[in-house]
Amino acid sequence: MMIKTVKFGGSSLSDSSHFKQFKNIVLSDGQRKVVVVSAPGKRFKDDHKITDLLYLCGAHKQYGVGFDEIFGIIVSRYKEIADNCGIGFDLDSEFSELKRKISSGISADELASRGEYLSAKLAAAYLGYEFHDSADLIFFNYDGTLDKEKTYKAIQRAYTGRGMVIPGFYGSMPNGSIRTFTRGGSDITGALAAAALTADVYENWTDVSGILIADPKIVKNPPAISHITYNELRELSFIGAQVMHEDAVFPVRETNIPLNIRNTNDPSNPGTMIMEDFGKEESSPSFITGIAGKKGFCAVTVVKNGLSSTPGLLRKIIEPFEKRSVNICFIPAGIDSVSVFVSSAQAEGFLYDIISELQKGVLPNSIRVTEHIAVIGAVGRRMANKLGVSGKIFAELGKSGVNIRMITQGPDELNIIFGVEEKDFEQSIRVLYDSFVKEKQP
Ligand code: ASP
Predict the structure, then answer these.
(1) Between the ranges 148-162, 274-288, 321-335, 423-437, where is the mean pLDDT highest?
(2) Amino acid 306: pLDDT
(3) Residues 6+ apart with CB under 8 A from 268
(4) Which residues line ligand 1 (CB under 6 A)?
(5) Mean of the per-residue pLDDT values for the chain?
(6) How far apart are CA 240 and CA 217, in angstroms?
(7) Mutate which of 77, 116, 134, 264 to test ligand 1's pocket (most atoms within 8 Å of Cβ)?
(8) If DSSP codes are grouped into helix, strand and coil, which group holds residue 170?
(9) Sheet arrangement for strand 366-379
(10) Nearest-angstrom CA–CA distance, 360 and 356
(11) What's the distance, CA 291 to chain centroid?
(12) Is the dihedral of CA 332, 336, 337, 338 positive or negative?
């Protein structure tokens, strides 16, 4: 029997109408047995997430300001769901217990976790599935890392083949106290549940139909990527795409489980399928899977005669950055020069020290700092071993008058990354999209 682990994010559970959709989706496929839920999220743009309201209650209590009003908003959000969906669950006693706990002192993590806890209680009652508390399934070590073995064993023991609902976002410490993951952590809970049970697929239901090929703020109506490998996804997210957290992807990737991003508001859309490999036979209209990029880089270019023929020189150039924990993002090199690309925000405050150390340690012919650089990457598994791809890309950019300041390509040819002045950022993305993606859409 196949098992599908399905996680629904906050926007997919924000109110009763979304809860109804959620129920339809889960029950329309008997394999959707393991359900992980977030706390209700925003219903509209300026709305509040339940998790934020819970943190806010805690802050009010901490500073001695009454929290009744905010608490009331939280109660009414859950009641709207329970009432309109006809869920017979005793919310009143849960809320009076929670209020008592807030008044007598509750940790910020435990308080925040109640959003997912109550969401899962309602969801379980609504679906007729078993509720399993994450405090008994997800275990942290004292240093805050996950105790994976204990977690996987507990999830495997809890799963009996019947439908189960698990609250996302939290687990427990060795002393039993509640601890949350970082924000958005229900994705991690879902991935852990999928990995522990070696699910056939991990469906992550959200409010978009997958990962878009490019940023919709820059290009008009970009389609979603239908298939992407885990490697490509990592490349895209490093270059700047807003995709799922690395910790959430890792457990399913490690166990070779496909991850399918789906849209609760458009359930028939197949969304984006993320897998380790799609085999050779796939055909796709474009050699680019996705385009991403970000602004805010600076390049420190060191020119030194004999750079490429002097052992140890490169290490001396890198060391001043490492000493100050400034992460090096790209490092394109020429024969006698090398450029070290770092995030301006990270390097800020250290640049003078780094440069003076380079002056003393490397005795360069010159050092130049170039600020306001944007980095753009075209990512695609179909680019590897394909002739002329970079030529085509740079020809198009050249035609549109973009001045390219840096070019780099990973040895596995999964990406082509280039740097431009920040003012050319949006245009470069549009050129890539218009020339190599848009025209090719069916
Ligand atoms: N509710 C939590 C948050 O808002 C966790 C999640 O939704 O994944 O961050």
Answers:
(1) 148-162
(2) 87
(3) none
(4) 9-10, 38-39, 49, 51, 115, 168-169, 183-187
(5) 92
(6) 14
(7) 116
(8) strand
(9) 328-330, 337-343, 290-303, 366-379, 415-421, 404-408
(10) 6
(11) 16
(12) positive
Q: Could you give the domains of the chain? A: 4-207 (3.40.1160.10), 290-440 (3.30.2130.10)
Percent of the chain with pLDDT over 70: 98
- pLDDT for 441 equals 61
**Sign of CA pseudo-dihedral 17, 133, 29, 41:** positive
What residue spans of 130-245 are helical by DSSP H? 148-158, 186-196, 230-239
Bigger pLDDT: 405 vs 420: 420
Read off the pTM.
0.87
Cα–Cα dist 434/135, whole Å: 49
377: left (phi over 0), alpha (psi -120 to 50) or beta: beta
What is the spatial distance between Cα 10 and Cα 47, in angstroms, rounded to a whole number? Answer: 12
pLDDT of residue 438: 79
pLDDT given at position 282: 62
Extended strands (E) in 304-414:
328-330, 337-343, 366-379, 404-408
Residue of 8, 12, 186 to mutate, ligand 1, most atoms within 8 A of C-beta: 186
Rg, C-alpha atoms of the chain: 25
Chain centre to alpha carbon of residue 318 = 29
What is the average per-residue pLDDT within 303-329?
A: 92
Query: What's the pLDDT tens digit per position in 182-210?
Result: 999 999 999 999 999 999 999 999 998 89
Cα 102 to Cα 53: distance, rounded to the nearest angstrom: 13
Tens of pLDDT, residue by residue over 247-303, are 888 999 999 999 999 999 999 999 999 998 887 656 666 788 999 999 999 999 999
Which residue(s) pair with 340 in the sheet?
300
SS3 80: helix
Tokens of 298: 């600076």
Would you list the DSSP string of 306-331?
TGGGSTTHHHHHHHHHHHTTPPEEE-
- Round to whole Å and give the CA distance between 435 and 201: 34
Give the atom of ligand 1 at the shortest distance from the alpha carbon of 52: 4
